[in-house]
Amino acid sequence: MNRIKQKLSEDKKILSIYFTAGYPKLDDTVQIIQDLEKSGVDLIEIGLPFSDPLADGPTIQESSTAALKNGMHTELLFEQIKDIRKSVSIPLILMGYFNPVLQYGVEKFCQKCEEIGIDGLILPDLPLDVYQEEYEALFKKHRLINVFLITPQTSDERIKAIDDASEGFIYMVSSASTTGAKSGFGEEQSSYFQRISNMQLKNPQIVGFGISNAETFNQATEKTKGAIIGSAFIKHLTENGVDSIGGFVSQIR
Amino acid sequence: MSYHADEKGYYGEFGGAFIPEMLYPNCEELRQNYIQIMEEPSFKQEFQQLLKDYVGRPTPLYFAKRLSEKFNTKIYLKREDLCHTGAHKVNNTIGQILMAKKLGKHRIIAETGAGQHGVATATVCALMGIECVVYMGEIDIARQAPNVARMKMLGAEVRAAKSGSKTLKDATNEAIRDWINNPVDTHYIIGSVVGPHPYPDMVARFQSVISEEIKSQLLEKEDRENPDYVVACVGGGSNAAGAFYHYLDTPEVGIIAVEAAGKGIHSGESAATSALGKVGIIHGSKTLLMQTADGQITEPYSISAGLDYPGVGPMHAHLYKSGRGEFISITDDEAMQAGLELCKLEGIIPAIESSHALAIFEDRKFKEDDVVVVNLSGRGDKDLQNYIDYFKL
Ligand SMILES: Cc1ncc(COP(=O)(O)O)c(C=O)c1O
């Protein structure tokens, strides 16, 4: 069974952490993954940096720019994590924009992911219809779960279509925003969380964007399966480097 | 073969809407409504009235006698430089501001490189009394001060894009991010035939007035609707799309797209996308773009800020790939000389973008009785400092 599905079947809230590969330092990737697993995180999203990350706010943008400047690229990331399954068993998702994947070759990319033991992909600018027409068979062949996003503006009809196309979980963007743009949840989010919960989707939902601490983690997971922290973790890495990852995670739960 | 967008916004293999889900409702609202709105009589009437009374259309089709003599062929100039605000850009912003009103939007955002599209957007927002925010790369703000001042005088807020390379592509990223954060009340006026579907098709339709006019004007002057060639410079490709539009499916009309070679195609400082680009995704569109082997988008270079974009619109990628269009690239030096030559021969100071289109005659020869229409996309006022620096005037 795919590690993501295995993890989702456990009776607990999921804490997922995003980081940008190649940041703060080019060779930090493996240590960050190992330390996150040790700290009790449930799922890791490894960000493949891109020159033009248009769904991301300043924090993740800056980490991407820095990572590229450090020399990160697709082949190097694969090289860095080629033996990662010897040391960790946590589910791993690669998250990035579609263009670098397209240039690497989508088939070759999927093959490489399977070899290494990557469990899923999040490619925010690969739209649902293109995925279904051109890539779904390929992703499935290489046992990769493709994760789709929904937002407060996504219509019920489209949420159902996304739910049908998903296996694993749905990435629920907490508000109309880029990453790291807002913090804290209000009335609007509560009613959105409630609305989605009422839809009784077949896939569990994990909330992302705007989660930075124990309070927002608890709010976000009240009606959902879990939450993703990105910008807040990147900020932590910027300020503290990679030596106190356990400390960051223990503040969340 | 069709050279127009299909229902999903594809021109051959290029186009589409490669957008994150956060943008889906915005683009979908536009996609479902744009054609219908453009075909409403009240929309058409208002659009045409403004093009006539406010923009100053139709722009003349001028027979450039001395230029024609020099190159021994018949050269006509489509005078988009005489549009209000000094370039073709305003045709699109007039159309889109009316579209935004029909969609009930209260706030406009735009990106700009040189500032021409920013000025054209600020202008129509002032005209309609709508709030306007223009994103501009921090580096461009410094090098295009007069246009920044114009936008401010017109009541727009100019926000510096400080991410990435701090130029046009980053200003576009920032505008898209703004749209993600303001999905309901805001309309994004893209300045060229780029971006996700339906933008390339919508902008091309608004600009198509250029070739519509060329047809009737040429009929009057030459007793024929079709020239032998239409020539236009390509940054994102909107003035070219407008000049080519009604000739796309007329194979007798040769289509010539002119890109900026900068300091030379292989100098590492160029914006010649058709020569240097590979298929990829930029700003939500699958097209030809300049990028590293790893798929990172690279920074182009041209002396002309309006041609300094790392991609081309999907229509042009398709024209290139299918062979329908002839693509020529022109260096900074060639363009500057051609610009100065037009001043001396015809008394017209062209925008440096347009000078690229004029520069092809040195090497690309035409028959004596060929009718060649060059789209003179803009005037050179905005480029005065560049001309001064280059020619040490
Ligand atoms: C005068 C002029 N011509 C051409 C362009 C290039 O844009 P496009 O290729 O969309 O026509 C610009 C852009 O700023 C411009 O100002």
Automatic annotation (TrEMBL), chain A:
<keyword id="KW-0822">Tryptophan biosynthesis</keyword>
<keyword id="KW-0456">Lyase</keyword>
<dbReference type="InterPro" id="IPR002028">
    <property type="entry name" value="Trp_synthase_suA"/>
</dbReference>
<comment type="function">
    <text>The alpha subunit is responsible for the aldol cleavage of indoleglycerol phosphate to indole and glyceraldehyde 3-phosphate.</text>
</comment>
<dbReference type="InterPro" id="IPR013785">
    <property type="entry name" value="Aldolase_TIM"/>
</dbReference>
<dbReference type="InterPro" id="IPR018204">
    <property type="entry name" value="Trp_synthase_alpha_AS"/>
</dbReference>
<dbReference type="GO" id="GO:0004834">
    <property type="term" value="F:tryptophan synthase activity"/>
</dbReference>
<comment type="subunit">
    <text>Tetramer of two alpha and two beta chains.</text>
</comment>
<protein>
    <recommendedName>
        <fullName>Tryptophan synthase alpha chain</fullName>
        <ecNumber>4.2.1.20</ecNumber>
    </recommendedName>
</protein>
<keyword id="KW-0028">Amino-acid biosynthesis</keyword>
<feature type="active site" description="Proton acceptor">
    <location>
        <position position="56"/>
    </location>
</feature>
<dbReference type="GO" id="GO:0005829">
    <property type="term" value="C:cytosol"/>
</dbReference>
<keyword id="KW-0057">Aromatic amino acid biosynthesis</keyword>
<dbReference type="InterPro" id="IPR011060">
    <property type="entry name" value="RibuloseP-bd_barrel"/>
</dbReference>
<comment type="similarity">
    <text>Belongs to the TrpA family.</text>
</comment>
<feature type="active site" description="Proton acceptor">
    <location>
        <position position="45"/>
    </location>
</feature>
<comment type="pathway">
    <text>Amino-acid biosynthesis; L-tryptophan biosynthesis; L-tryptophan from chorismate: step 5/5.</text>
</comment>
<dbReference type="Pfam" id="PF00290">
    <property type="entry name" value="Trp_syntA"/>
</dbReference>
Automatic annotation (TrEMBL), chain B:
<comment type="similarity">
    <text>Belongs to the TrpB family.</text>
</comment>
<keyword id="KW-0663">Pyridoxal phosphate</keyword>
<dbReference type="InterPro" id="IPR001926">
    <property type="entry name" value="TrpB-like_PALP"/>
</dbReference>
<dbReference type="GO" id="GO:0005737">
    <property type="term" value="C:cytoplasm"/>
</dbReference>
<dbReference type="InterPro" id="IPR023026">
    <property type="entry name" value="Trp_synth_beta/beta-like"/>
</dbReference>
<protein>
    <recommendedName>
        <fullName>Tryptophan synthase beta chain</fullName>
        <ecNumber>4.2.1.20</ecNumber>
    </recommendedName>
</protein>
<comment type="pathway">
    <text>Amino-acid biosynthesis; L-tryptophan biosynthesis; L-tryptophan from chorismate: step 5/5.</text>
</comment>
<comment type="subunit">
    <text>Tetramer of two alpha and two beta chains.</text>
</comment>
<comment type="function">
    <text>The beta subunit is responsible for the synthesis of L-tryptophan from indole and L-serine.</text>
</comment>
<keyword id="KW-0456">Lyase</keyword>
<keyword id="KW-0822">Tryptophan biosynthesis</keyword>
<dbReference type="InterPro" id="IPR006654">
    <property type="entry name" value="Trp_synth_beta"/>
</dbReference>
<keyword id="KW-0028">Amino-acid biosynthesis</keyword>
<dbReference type="InterPro" id="IPR036052">
    <property type="entry name" value="TrpB-like_PALP_sf"/>
</dbReference>
<dbReference type="Pfam" id="PF00291">
    <property type="entry name" value="PALP"/>
</dbReference>
<dbReference type="InterPro" id="IPR006653">
    <property type="entry name" value="Trp_synth_b_CS"/>
</dbReference>
<dbReference type="GO" id="GO:0004834">
    <property type="term" value="F:tryptophan synthase activity"/>
</dbReference>
<feature type="domain" description="Tryptophan synthase beta chain-like PALP">
    <location>
        <begin position="56"/>
        <end position="378"/>
    </location>
</feature>
<feature type="modified residue" description="N6-(pyridoxal phosphate)lysine">
    <location>
        <position position="89"/>
    </location>
</feature>
<keyword id="KW-0057">Aromatic amino acid biosynthesis</keyword>
